[in-house]
Prior knowledge:
- The chain is α+β, with helices and mostly antiparallel strands.
- It has helices at 50-66, 88-98, 111-115, 153-163, and strands spanning 20-22, 27-29, 39-45, 71-77, 104-106, 120-121, 123-127, 133-137, 176-179, 191-193.
- A 5-stranded mixed beta sheet has the order 5-4-3-7-8. A 3-stranded antiparallel beta sheet has the order 6-9-10, with helices on one face.
Amino acid sequence: xxxxxxxxxxLGAPLRPFRLPEPLTGRLVGPEDFPQAQGLLVAFICNACxxxxxxxxxxxxxxxxxxxxxxxxxxxxSDVSDAAxxxxxxxxxxxxxxxxxxxxxxxxxxxxxxAYQVACTPDFYLFDRHRRLAYHGRFDETRFGGGRPAHxxxxxxxxxxxxxxxxxxxxxxxxxGSRLQTPGDAARFTYAAFDH
Length: 196
């Protein structure tokens, strides 16, 4: 299979606002609920994707570590398949099971995924205190099935720089993972590589 290219909005672009339901609490949540955050990470994930499962524990740890420094994470599940593991109750259960210290939201129409031009899961969009895109790239160099645990070095370094008010690294490696499923997709979690 040939690589599929995504078309992200460029570094420095403004955050695209949204409000989505959080199944765990039943409330609507969006970036504007966290005006004091020094950095805001919008992470597109889902429950059953093996690439997301590979990074989920390390993502939970990264969020917990960087929360005291001012990083707010919003996870968005844009999987619109009929799979039971992506239902609202399953999203709430996953947030509890993983110990997510951040809202895990559902994008039932994929409107937010389209606005962010998401092509795969997981995919990460890090915004600075001015809500300008500072980083759009991979979690780290590890891959599902590669025999090495995820650690989040790339994203962590970018977040630490951003939280200090410094530019994120200019060299950013695009996310690689499972193609985001859209209505009518017959197969789920087709691996694809993405390049900026």
